[in-house]
Design a protein that fits this description.
The termini are far apart. About 70% of the residues lie in helices and about 5% in strands. The protein contains six helices and two strands. It has a two-stranded antiparallel sheet. It has two domains: about 40 residues, no CATH class; about 120 residues, no CATH class. The protein is mainly alpha-helical and about 170 residues long.
């Protein structure tokens, strides 16, 4: 086989081999060893319909966040991040509402609509909604220590990343 034929075969295998099991909040890229050779790794992608649903929801969510921050800063000023507080609380309410409906009312949303509303819109609107929902899921599952660790690590690492980002930006 020529290099071009190998690439085409790898693409065909990649596009046809992905079988999602239970995608709710995010789609993972699965890397599977193809053979013993290091160069024979294949990356499986989710179906295009799922990618499109997340992209559409994310763009709408991002614009909603932009407008929320814009208008809250106009209405209430910039001494406190009211817009961010709003989107974090509203996004948590949204994901709690939509997530619970999706989990408790099977068939209400198909998989693509669920991805559009959760991973797409809520992910574009705010990532705090995912943190809140996942923390509550851990707590309700009896893992209160993991729920606490989830909140603490997200806050600590988020601030650490912010400080690192500020430091790196100041080097430029």
């Amino acid at each position: 086989m020529t290099t071009g034929e190998n690439i085409i075969a790898l693409l065909e295998e990649t596009l046809t081999s992905f079988q999602p099991r239970n995608i709710f909040f995010s789609c993972s890229i699965v890397i599977k060893p193809g053979s013993r050779k290091r160069s024979a790794m294949s990356v499986s992608l989710p179906p295009f319909s799922q990618i499109a649903a997340v992209a559409l929801g994310g763009s709408v969510g991002s614009m909603a966040r932009f407008f929320s921050n814009y208008y809250f800063s106009m209405w209430l000023g910039t001494t406190f991040p009211y817009g961010t507080l709003f989107v974090n609380v509203a996004g948590s309410l949204w994901l709690g509402f939509i997530g619970t409906l999706a989990l408790n009312k099977a068939g209400l949303f198909d998989a693509n609509v669920r991805l559009l509303l959760t991973t797409g819109f809520a992910g574009g609107f705010t990532t705090f909604s995912s943190l809140a929902f996942e923390t509550m899921s851990l707590y309700q599952g009896g893992s209160w220590t993991l729920a606490l660790a989830n909140v603490a690590s997200n806050l600590f690492l988020g601030f650490l990343g912010l400080i690192l980002g500020i430091f790196l930006a100041r080097l430029i």
